[in-house]
Design brief:
9 helices
Length: 254
């Protein structure tokens, strides 16, 4: 008998391949064992996915540090976990557009001169959501590398791994958090503010545990991180939005 995944020769009594670790499947695929496999994969407490999700909240340094240090079987790898998060983000966007139309419209909170820009930005984010999520990771890693320049234990690639896990975690959590609060009629603006605060809080928590910092040290690092992020990314986008809005208003007035 050979392993169906790597073709390694196995003895008849083997339940797992001792080369690649894959489970030996002897039964033909049926509806029953298909659902058994799904249940085992997603709802068993001891499975890697649930363990990864829980431990990224309780001890992120173990999940991320394990992967960085070469332990690859204990948790879901960062690329697969991030891919799962992208799936959740796409599903969330579909549900919002399908069942909560117009919920992301800021209405009276929008300035008149930036309404057109905001609409174009929103359409762009919907169309290129995956690319935007992927863009954030190297940006976060670059800023983190700058902020933690005096901490030499992680290189740039390892910073990428940290933020792949962290961004994926807040995205998956956000899927359930946002939809649950929408179901109980909490305004989307309030949800967004709370979610953004929780996201920054979680990112700070992950960085604190990864770098073993004190509360005062991580507070200072996060403030520097946010300042750099705003200077490099947020302020240019807002300035461009205001500029285009004023330009369009002046052209319309002329």
């Amino acid at each position: 008998m050979d392993c169906k995944n790597c073709n390694t020769a196995l003895t008849p009594e083997c339940d797992f391949c001792y080369s690649c670790g894959a489970k030996v499947i002897r039964k033909r695929l049926t509806i029953r064992n298909l659902f058994e496999h799904v249940s085992e994969t997603f709802f068993n407490y001891d499975n890697k996915l649930l363990r990864t999700f829980i431990n990224l909240f309780t001890k992120p340094e173990d999940v991320i540090g394990s992967y960085i240090n070469g332990v690859r079987k204990k948790y879901v790898n960062p690329v697969s976990y991030f891919a799962l998060a992208i799936t959740f983000a796409g599903l969330q966007l579909y549900i919002l557009n399908k069942f909560f139309p117009g919920v992301m419209n800021m209405g009276a909170l929008e300035r008149e001169e930036t309404k057109e820009f905001n609409k174009n930005l929103y359409d762009f984010l919907q169309e290129y959501q995956t690319l935007v999520m992927m863009f954030y990771i190297p940006l976060y890693a670059l800023i983190s590398k700058i902020v933690f320049l005096n901490h030499k234990q992680f290189n740039y690639t390892e910073h990428l791994v940290i933020f792949l896990y962290a961004q994926a975690q807040v995205t998956i959590f956000g899927f359930f958090f946002i939809l649950l609060l929408l179901l109980v009629k909490v305004p989307f603006v309030a949800i967004s503010l709370v979610y953004t605060f929780l996201m920054f809080l979680y990112m700070a928590f992950v960085l604190k545990r990864m770098h073993n910092l004190t509360f005062l040290e991580i507070t200072l690092k996060v403030l520097i991180f946010v300042l750099i992020f705003f200077v490099l990314f947020v302020i240019p986008i807002v300035a461009y939005g205001i500029y285009t809005g004023i330009k369009q208003a002046s052209m319309g007035g002329g």
